[in-house]
Specification:
Length: 340
């Protein structure tokens, strides 16, 4: 394991003002996104859409990394430049989603565990050859009124995340470790904080047991936030404070960066929450973003699958990237949203 390389890639991804674009939707997920704008999910449409994202001018100022899906890692621009090379040439680190999705956890109705460990060593070696420098694995933890998640469900997911992370570092790839506590459900912010705490505690215990180098990884957690169906939604300051309190308790200072998922928040809320956390002053780690929907929803809305709207789509991406870049410094204002 080349620890210097792991550290340097992890730090580059969360360099000043920078974060990650999660463009690693699996084919079923991108189909859902395309359905919302009546675009057919063909291989060429998926390629074209990702090309629009990755060639947008100016995104390199605020994107330290982009996460790709297997198919996308192997695709090219119209001019024949492989996407990983295009990104790397622009100073953006290419990464790859390597998990194979969350499946029902046997013996634990209502809970899931993420699959994809079998054969992972071989796949990581190939991804590295194709130009990936980091990877992502997402564990899904749902909150239910009853006893879900169970301690076992959390442990099973933490164990899989740690096995994945150790394999990544062995292969010279920086693991992004993503234990996502879902914001679906009617639970309050306190329950989210308690479950997020349990999950982070279990994840770092397993990472440590598996010998994962904290300095050569990134954490991709949910923010601590009330469930979507909860009648009482916490304010921006309350979300920022609860999230940082929870992370400071359970995430070692050796980890270079936290890159939040957006998880179904609106683009504006995700930026505002990130901003509020950074406005609270320096933390032990960089506090950044790895947004999928919160960066791409405005892009899809602008694009609509039309070639005459490519410039507008790229403008929409650049705007979200710039605003999240400002939020990295605690300098974003909601009023900036209305500026064109
Ligand atoms: P969202 O920001 O849309 O939650 O996606 C981030 C991601 O990569 C989930 O794995």
């Amino acid at each position: 394991m080349n620890t210097d390389e792991l550290r340097s890639v992890a730090n580059a991804i969360v360099a000043r003002q920078k974060g990650v674009l999660a463009a690693d939707e699996s084919n079923p997920t991108i189909k859902k996104r395309f359905d919302s704008i009546q675009v057919e999910s063909t291989e060429e449409n998926r390629r074209r859409y990702r090309e629009i994202l990755f060639t947008a001018e100016g995104i390199e100022r605020t994107l330290g990394g982009v996460i790709l899906f297997d198919e996308t890692l192997r695709q090219h621009t119209r001019d024949g430049i492989p996407f990983p090379r295009l990104l790397a040439d622009r100073g953006i680190v290419p990464g790859i989603k390597v998990d194979q999705g969350a499946k029902a956890l046997a013996g634990h109705p209502g809970e899931k565990v993420t699959e994809g460990l079998d054969g992972l060593r071989g796949r990581l070696a190939e991804y590295k050859q194709l130009g990936a420098q980091f990877a992502k694995w997402r564990a899904v933890i749902e909150i239910d009124e009853r006893d879900i998640p169970s301690a076992f469900g959390i442990r099973a997911n933490a164990h899989a995340l740690a096995r994945y992370a150790a394999l990544c570092q062995e292969a010279g790839l920086v693991p992004i470790v993503e234990p996502e506590v879902l914001m679906d459900g009617a639970h309050g912010i306190e329950r989210c904080e308690a479950v997020t705490a349990q999950a982070l505690q279990a994840v770092f215990a397993e990472l440590d047991a598996h010998g994962v180098l904290f300095e050569g990884m990134l954490l991709k957690p949910n923010m601590v936030i009330a469930g979507k169906k909860c009648a009482h939604q916490a304010g921006v300051e309350a979300v920022a404070e609860a999230t940082l309190r929870c992370l400071r308790r359970y995430v070692p200072a050796a980890v270079p960066g936290i890159v939040f998922l957006s998880g179904g928040q609106s683009a504006e809320d995700a930026t505002e929450h990130l901003n509020a956390m950074n406005a609270l002053g320096p933390q032990p780690w960089q506090v950044s973003f790895s947004y999928g929907r919160a960066l791409q929803a405005p892009v899809l809305a602008a694009w609509q699958g039309r070639e005459d709207r490519v410039a507008a789509a790229q403008q929409a991406l650049l705007k979200r990237c710039d605003l999240n870049g400002l939020a990295r410094d605690g300098k974003y204002l909601r009023a900036m949203e209305s500026a064109t």
